[in-house]
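Translate sequence into structure tokens.
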Amino acid sequence: MKIEGITDVFFDLDHTLWDFDKNSALTFKTIFELNKIEVDIDMFLHHYIIINFNYWKLFRDEKIDKEVLRFKRLNDTFMAINHPILPEIINKLSKDYIEHLTNYNYLYENTIEVLDYLKQKYRLHIISNGFHEVQNKKLENSNIQHYFKTVTNGESIGVKKPNPKIFNHALDCAKTSAKTSIMIGDGFEADIIGAMNVGMEVIFFGTNKENSEVEVKQISNLIQLKNYL
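Result follows.
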């Protein structure tokens, strides 16, 4: 069923449009080769994905800063696979990771088709918790920046999703209202609950909801947005 009355569509970037896991895996392969780090990449990524998710939650909740996030997620992963690395090497890998991450810019299936479809009917925007300098490069290097009227990064305004301030700031920048806006993202607490709390319509992108008691519209492929918008 089509959702009526929407003028503005807000997207999360990582894990929603930009295929973070695939691009991140390719980046680690590159920087491990550059730094002559010999590990089982699949085992490393198996642990890293979980550890990174947990540290991002702490960062989102403002319990750690960017430097702690970037160091600890790598250090803890190497410890988890019993391959301890000197702190100076961790710092080098952390820097290299950020430098090379935006060299890979795979998007989720049907991203371009859906953005082309939506831009004919709506104003499109980004709300991201990612780091300002990295997120902008992702948009530029994947050649999708031109679809979006505004881009709001949590780092730039000092708060992160699900804090209502970031949603209200994004709405103000877009010169629109919550009642005519919809948020699409993979983070159930950050994107979906956060947007609902300011009165926005929502669509959850993914298969695993952090709180299954809350019923919302849900898609597993971006092409399914055509069913609602």
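Note: The first strand starts at residue 8 and ends at 11.
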